[in-house]
Amino acid sequence: MKISNCNWFEVEDYLKHDDRCVLPLGSTEQHAYLSLSVDSILSEKMATDAAEPLHVPVFPAVPYGVTPYFMGFPGTVSLTMQTYEALVRDVLDSLYTHGFRRVLIVNGHGGNSPVQAACADWVKDNPGTALRFHDWWRAPKTWAAVKAEDPVASHASWMENFAWTRLAGRSMPAEQKPFVDFERLREASPGEVRTLIGDGNYGGEYQKADTVMEAIWAVAVAETRSLLEGEWE
């Protein structure tokens, strides 16, 4: 259940019998011809679809993340890691105050992943809590499903092109884009990154059939849901 569809009375009642919740992490950054909010859209929908049959509350996706390398693309918003760690800890502290003790973080943006260290520190500072950090798109079963369909998959390519991240009325290139030189990217400034990747796709086809994407999504939802079920450490 999405927190945005609940009132506080309902959350209070929920906490009388369960202490689990889901916190999606996203970003606002270029995704070629797709929405700038791809990572937030995907992390929140993944969290919601996974949690729905379990009736576990899902908080709104944090819409900003750590993405300094895309600052050459207008519309991108980047936080420093120091700011991001403080933000995530503040959110977790708020959840703890109200009685949430088991938190699944569904992350949709690779640049956010280093915040796991701050999350681990938060668990140490709050005995009786448990936190799972889930990069949903590169979880083992999900990534295997992506690679089985097409090993050429990357940022802003077909693997992020779902019906819910596509923008109406925008056409996609038909060709497969060659992979960018990742070694050069690691050392590049934001302006140089834009020059290297052009439209923003790191490499791969721009779109595949919705039936293909729905099948991969189903694998990812099941893999994410499994982290909410069973015993927590």
Taken in chain order, the helices and strands follow as: HEHHEHEHHHH
Strand order, main sheet: write it out. 1-2-3
Supply the CATH architecture: 3-Layer(aba) Sandwich
Which secondary-structure class do the elements indicate?
A: mainly alpha
Oligomer: single chain
Write a structural description.
The chain has one domain (3-226): Creatininase (Rossmann fold), CATH 3.40.50.10310. The chain has 8 helices and 3 strands. The protein has helices at residues 8-14, 38-51, 81-98, 116-125, 140-149, 182-186, 190-197, 210-226; strands spanning 20-25, 102-107, 130-135. Helix 4 links the parallel strand 2 and strand 3 (130-135). 36% of the residues are buried.
Task: Summarize the model shown.
With 233 residues, the protein is mainly α. 38% of the residues lie in helices and 8% in strands. It has one domain: Creatininase (Rossmann fold), CATH 3.40.50.
Quickly list its features.
233 residues, mainly alpha, Rossmann fold, globular, metal ion binding, creatininase activity, EC 3.5.2.10, zinc
Please describe the topology of this protein.
Blueprint: H1 8-14, E1 20-25, H2 38-51, H3 81-98, E2 102-107, H4 116-125, E3 130-135, H5 140-149, H6 182-186, H7 190-197, H8 210-226
Helix pairs in contact: 2-8, 5-8
